[in-house]
Amino acid sequence: MARSKNQPLRKCVVTQEMKPKKQLIRIVRNKDGEVFVDETGKKNGRGAYLTLNIDVIDQAEKSQILNRHLNTEVDPTIYEELRECAKAAGHE
Fold first, then answer.
1. In 3D, which of 29, 31, 19 has the Cα closest to residue 73?
2. CATH number of the domain that residue 13 is part of
3. pLDDT single digits (tens) 29-68
4. What residue range is the signal peptide (predicted)?
5. Domain tally, the chain
6. Distance between CA 61 and CA 56 in Å, rounded?
7. Is position 1 within any domain?
8. Is residue 55 part of a domain?
9. Is 0.85 topped by the overall pTM?
10. DSSP states of 62-90 as a string?
11. Is residue 3 part of a domain?
């Protein structure tokens, strides 16, 4: 009998929903204080997960929740990059 592989779950910082890691995107702040989108989900640094959905990304930008989770100022270009990732994945 074949065993199914366990999918890792992560929590979206906006919706507070536990979802499979592949349905979320990770935003990272590294030791140098740089903030960037981590599409691989494996880069070193403090991370926060967001659901790949334009509405959730907009809500994160309005509430500045990533600033609190990453303890730094998140540049507006990060949100634009997140929107592009959501559009590319077809999660508008």
1. 29
2. 3.30.1230.10
3. 999 999 999 988 889 999 999 999 999 999 999 999 999 9
4. none
5. 1
6. 9
7. no
8. yes
9. yes
10. HHTHHHHHHTSPPPHHHHHHHHHHHHHHT
11. no
